[in-house]
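Why do we care about 3D structure at all? Because function follows from shape, and shape follows, mostly, from sequence. That is the central idea of this module. The next example makes it concrete: a single protein chain, its amino acid sequence, and then its structure expressed as tokens.
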Amino acid sequence: MSFQRKEMRRILAPLYHIWFYIVVAIVTILLSPFLIVSILHQSWYPYFFKLAKLWSVIIIYGIGCYPVIQRDFKTEKGKSYLFVANHTSMTDIMLLFYVIPNPFVFIGKKELSKLPIFGYIYRRTSILVDRKNTKSRIEAFKNAQAKLNQGLSICIFPEGGVPNSEIILDDFKEGAFQLAITHQIPIVPLTLHDNKKRFPYDLFRGMPGKMRVKVHSLIPVKDLKINDRKELKKLTRDIILNELLHPTVK
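And the structure:
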């Protein structure tokens, strides 16, 4: 890429970031009355999930992106799964709502709950955890059990946050895999290829384009014991890392 082209992208990237926030704000505000009504009762969560899918579709295409999905596994309606994905960008949330058909809740950082409008909806529909607080982690584990008992699935970023840009895939925390084994919930790994390129945290980088997603084959956890969580963690991370290093989605 020529020097002039790189400089032009650095100039346009901040404008693209501003456009992203404008799109998110407008779509969230317009849909917020419907989203808020849909979260008034826990039994209405499937309706919220459909609205969240609409929210994500409008935002993804509104910022000039388009998903390209390769599925090695198709989920079954009415079954619960633990969806595990690498974390790269703010757009990960939208893309996972777009890709995953089964109603699920995120296990996510407590800090996002402070955002206006989105934060309120996030608090009502996600399992919040302060990973530095043992009591918070225990409470999140209990809340996850309650969601699974409702027939919902769980989605988690086991890296515990978005790693530095030079890190391809950070180490995984064990909590997700302990949860999967404890409740005998099979794991579906997902690899998000392009979100870091589309909308990174670096203000001077980012551009529209395709968002490739690989939905990997199911990892069964039947008969696994808690002591197997390290091996399960390694297996899941190796699957995602291998796809990041050797993409099969074009």
